[in-house]
Write a structure and sequence with these properties.
- By secondary structure, the protein is an alpha/beta fold.
- It has two domains: 242 residues, Spore Coat Polysaccharide Biosynthesis Protein SpsA, Chain A (Alpha-Beta Complex), CATH 3.90.550; 71 residues.
- It is 49% helix and 15% strand.
- The protein is built from eleven helices and eight strands.
- An eight-stranded mixed sheet has the order 7-5-6-4-1-2-3-8, with helices on both faces.
- Helix 9 packs antiparallel against helix 10.
- The longest helix is centred in the C-terminal third of the chain and has 34 residues.
């Protein structure tokens, strides 16, 4: 294991999407935490991901006393992963981590992950301990983790991950390879640097509702496998070969039955069943291939993964931050 890097420079990236109600609690919690841990040279980057409420105005009006802060506003809603990438591109600290506006993931994780980094790791994952979640959500998470371990990343954590901290070396590679329609978490996981994980208890949401909708889960599922695994293409190949051999055997069976017993009655039900199965498999296969073709086309266009509309320095310098703390 390489020599540990000792640093107190930490950037926390927080995506913001319609979080107006929870912003006072968020800023108050950040102020309290970094006041208690004043030895940290803390930078907080809020990334406004196309909020339709007054989140930007409220964030600008709040007093960010114990940390330097900036607000990056994207031109529209690009999604949380694009927002996180925008934050990484503008982070200035040696260590970078993610958190979210609802603060269900405690800020104390910053200290725990930082300690693990200082032991010589490059990446620290934080996964939640067993909590009471809806059966459907738990089933999705477990299925997703199993499939990722099986077909994409053998080192994918069994309980998944919610939060990550990494050093400047990892951030440099992320900034060099900004991937569209991709999971930033899986991109970091696949880099292969020294990494470990910690567990924590997720807190109850104080305000608002979860933005982690079913459509976003489905998109993550598709992005994960199409962007990081050949499993879908292999699935198409295996299904095609399997159907071919079944078709050959079935054809041989029909011919032999007809020649030996003459007891097969031709009918439209069997024909329709075959057509439905055949066209169903074909359409699934074409859909998977189309996903790859679309992503290849999208990558060839080199369109930006995110577009920054405005950057607001909420605290212009560390000197001003210290002045606010003293007063």
């Amino acid at each position: 294991m390489p020599d540990p890097v000792i640093t107190n420079s930490v950037t926390v990236i927080i995506p913001i999407f319609n979080e107006y109600e929870g912003i006072p609690f968020l800023v108050e919690s950040l102020n309290d935490f970094f006041t208690e841990n004043s030895d940290l040279d803390a930078e907080v980057i809020f990334v406004n991901d196309g909020s339709k409420d007054n989140s930007v105005e409220r964030l600008s009006q709040m007093k960010h006393k114990s940390y330097s802060a900036k607000l990056i506003s994207l031109s529209r809603n690009f999604g949380s992963h694009a927002a996180l990438r925008a934050g990484i591109a503008h982070a200035t600290s040696e260590l970078i981590c993610f958190n979210y506006a609802d603060l269900q993931d405690p800020l104390e994780l910053i200290l725990e992950m930082k300690n693990k980094i200082e032991e010589g790791n490059d990446i620290i994952w934080a996964h939640r301990e067993s909590t009471k979640v809806p059966f459907a959500e738990k089933t999705f998470s477990r299925s997703y983790a199993y499939l990722m371990q099986k077909f994409a990343f053998a080192n994918f954590p069994e309980k998944g991950f919610d939060i990550v901290m990494f050093n400047r070396k990892v951030a440099t590679f992320v900034n060099r390879n900004v991937e569209a329609n991709s999971s930033i978490f899986l991109q970091i996981l696949g880099m292969g640097f020294n990494q470990t994980s910690i567990s924590y208890k997720k807190r109850e949401r104080k305000t608002g509702v979860s933005k982690w909708t079913l459509s976003k889960k489905i998109k993550l599922f598709i992005d994960s496998f199409v962007a990081f695994s050949y499993a879908p293409i292999r699935f198409v190949t295996i299904v095609g070969i399997t159907m071919f051999f079944i078709g050959v055997l079935w054809t041989g069976y029909i011919i032999l039955r007809k020649l030996l017993f003459h007891d097969l009655v031709s009918g439209w039900p069997a024909l329709i069943s075959i057509l439905m199965i055949g066209f169903g498999v074909t359409n699934i296969s074409l859909g998977i291939i189309a996903e790859y073709l679309w992503r290849t086309l999208d990558a060839s266009r080199r369109r930006p993964v995110f577009i920054i509309d405005e950057i607001i320095e909420l605290n212009k310098s560390k000197t001003e931050v210290r002045h606010l703390i003293e007063h």
